[in-house]
């Protein structure tokens, strides 16, 4: 199945293809923000969990990747910016990032499954000299390796 970069790329493609309004999403870090947009990067801390047979030392050939999806929208004024970001975070809106991952959890067949674990760090974020309203969505991706 997918290595880390392939899993990030598959998640980015799934998000981009299934969000409304369309959310440009990249499979790696971007220093230039052009909202609305997101990118998929490894989470700090525990990044890859290697599954083992019966809890022993033998590698069983499956991994779980822990990735972060920062979502950025323009910050023009409180109400419209908040509404735009909240739409991407909705658990019941058909075009949200959460539903895109939930409804397409195999990421086009690239992985065994992907699941949203949490959303956090909601608020203003400065990149360069520009402020954006942003939130991080954390996702765990399970993939068998060949």
Tell me what you see in this structure.
The chain has 146 residues and is α+β, with helices and mostly antiparallel strands. The protein has one domain (4-144): Alpha-Beta Plaits, CATH 3.30.70. Helices cover 23% and strands 40% of the residues. It has helices spanning 4-17, 78-89, 97-103, and strands spanning 24-26, 37-39, 41-42, 48-52, 59-74, 113-127, 130-144. Strands 1, 2, 3, 4, 5, 6 and 7 form a seven-stranded mixed sheet that branches. A hairpin with a 6-residue loop joins β4 and β5.
Summarize the structure.
The chain has three helices and seven strands, in the order H-E-E-E-E-E-H-H-E-E.
Q: What characterizes the major β-sheet?
A: 7 strands, mixed
Q: Assign a percent range to the helix content.
A: 10-25%
CATH class: Alpha Beta
Kindly name the structural category: alpha+beta
Q: Categorize the overall geometry.
A: globular
Give the low-pLDDT segments: none
Distance between the termini: 6 Å
- CATH architecture classification name: 2-Layer Sandwich
Q: Mean pLDDT, rounded to whole units? A: 91
What is the domain tally?
Answer: 1
Strand content: 35-45%
Topology pattern, helix = H, strand = E: HEEEEEHHEE
CATH fold field value = Alpha-Beta Plaits
Number of strands: 7
How many individual helices? 3
Radius of gyration: 16 Å
Tags for this model:
single chain, 146 residues, alpha+beta, Alpha-Beta Plaits, seven-stranded mixed sheet, 3 helices, 7 strands, 23% helix, 40% strand, globular
């Amino acid at each position: 199945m997918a290595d880390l970069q392939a899993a990030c790329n598959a998640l980015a493609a799934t998000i981009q293809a299934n969000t409304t309004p369309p959310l440009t999403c990249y499979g790696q870090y971007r220093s230039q923000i052009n909202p609305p947009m997101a990118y998929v990067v490894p989470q700090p801390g525990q990044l890859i969990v290697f599954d083992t047979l019966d809890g022993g030392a033998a590698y069983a050939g499956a991994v779980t990747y822990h990735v972060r999806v920062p979502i950025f929208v323009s910050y023009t004024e409180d109400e419209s910016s908040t509404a735009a970001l909240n739409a991407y975070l909705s658990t019941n809106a058909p075009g949200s990032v959460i539903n895109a991952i939930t409804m397409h959890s195999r990421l086009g067949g690239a992985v065994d499954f992907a699941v949203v674990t949490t959303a956090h760090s909601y608020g203003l974020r400065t990149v360069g000299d520009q402020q954006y309203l942003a939130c991080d969505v954390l996702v765990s991706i399970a993939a068998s390796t060949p």
